[in-house]
Amino acid sequence: MKVTVIGYWHGFPEKDEATSGYLLEHEQCKLLIDCGSGVLAKLQSYCKVEELDAVVLSHYHHDHKADLGPLQYASIIKAAEYPDKQLPIYGHRMDEEQFAGLTFQHVTTGVEYKEEEQAMIGPFTFQFLRTRHPVPCYAMKITVTDGASLVYTADTSYFDQLADFSAGADLLIAECSGYAGEKVTQFGHMTSSCVGKLAARAQPRQVLLSHLPHHGKHQQLIREVLDDYQGAVATAKTGWQYELAGE
Ligand SMILES: [Zn+2]
Ligand SMILES: [Zn+2]
């Protein structure tokens, strides 16, 4: 399983960049996890829009779904070339109006996921965990048959169950919206120290800090995580790639 960071900013994209978006590839299948502002433009450096097999949304905040509309327009425009293509867009149904928007004409179809059920999407198996965030949001554990596993926290403050859910992941993509001591947890986000605590308990093979703040030096986030956790930690950048080893 290969992961490519398409966008990683908190809230809004910096110049020529994007908010949350991650491309997953395995056995010819291409999935987009979250579709934030700027994602559609950046995605095309790595994958044609029409090559996507599915999209999975963690929640419906703009920085995770702003480019959904343009993706649906792209699907309409490409429909002349690919008349049979239907793009499934997975989302939760805790917000019926948002969920209804995942289906667009004959080109995209909303598919519900639930916390208590596994979802099989191509060669990927998904499990979901409701996070602590002002609106319903789901962390995801994604595994493939070679044993490789990825956990994406999506947006959340720290809670122990998230650490248990993340245990032993090959790659943990953790949201890190603030530096140690900053007041982000009350808004349903994690600081670097929260991620340090999460990683110390979950012991993943690699941590990737993402959903990054617009101030300070991101290298400092790594140093602050390392206060609580001795392991491999990186900060997200556009085009950062990681091949999950599996067994
Ligand atoms: Zn959010
Ligand atoms: Zn967000």
Keywords:
7 helices; single chain; binds zinc ion; MBL fold metallo-hydrolase; alpha/beta; seven-stranded mixed beta sheet; RibonucZ/Hydroxyglut_hydro; Metallo-B-lactamas; Metallo-beta-lactamase, Chain A; 247 residues
Description of the molecule:
This protein is α/β, with parallel strands linked by helices and 247 residues long. It has a single domain, classed as Ribonuclease Z/Hydroxyacylglutathione hydrolase-like (Metallo-beta-lactamase, Chain A, 4-Layer Sandwich). The protein is 21% helix and 27% strand. The protein is built from seven helices and 14 strands. It holds the Pfam family Lactamase_B_2. Residues 18-189 form the Metallo-beta-lactamase domain.
Characterize this entry briefly.
By secondary structure, this protein is α/β, with parallel strands linked by helices.
